[in-house]
Design a protein that fits this description.
- The chain is mainly alpha-helical and about 100 residues long.
- Helices cover about 75% and strands about 0% of the residues.
- It is built from 3 helices and no strands.
- The longest helix has about 35 residues.
């Protein structure tokens, strides 16, 4: 396995690898949050409920990572700059996924 660091290359390069990296990392964080939720808060009774609670946390975290990395890379490509503004806009886009996922429509 080849070691990958997100910041080895400037923004706008290796977009798919950066999206995959961010999705994997935030999926792992979502899994940790799901386990803590099940142990400390919800105590789901059945295996189906446990899997549903895991998906409730893992999927939004994975989507946030993918969207934030994709938008950051896209904005960097459009602007032709490698600075903090790319991450600011990507963070806003990723954070909006959290709010969309939590909306009870």
């Amino acid at each position: 396995m080849v070691w990958f660091s997100y910041f080895d290359k400037p923004d706008g390069e290796d977009c798919f690898q950066k999206i995959w990296f961010a999705t994997k990392k935030l999926s792992a964080i979502g899994a940790c949050v799901a386990v803590l939720d099940q142990i400390a808060v919800t105590h789901p009774p059945t295996n189906f409920d446990k899997m549903a609670r895991a998906g409730h946390w893992i999927l939004p975290f994975a989507a946030m990572g993918a969207v934030a990395a994709a938008v950051t890379c896209s904005i960097a490509t459009i602007r032709q700059k490698d600075d903090y503004v790319n991450y600011l806009i990507g963070g806003f886009a990723g954070g909006s996924i959290w709010e969309i996922g939590r909306a009870h429509v």
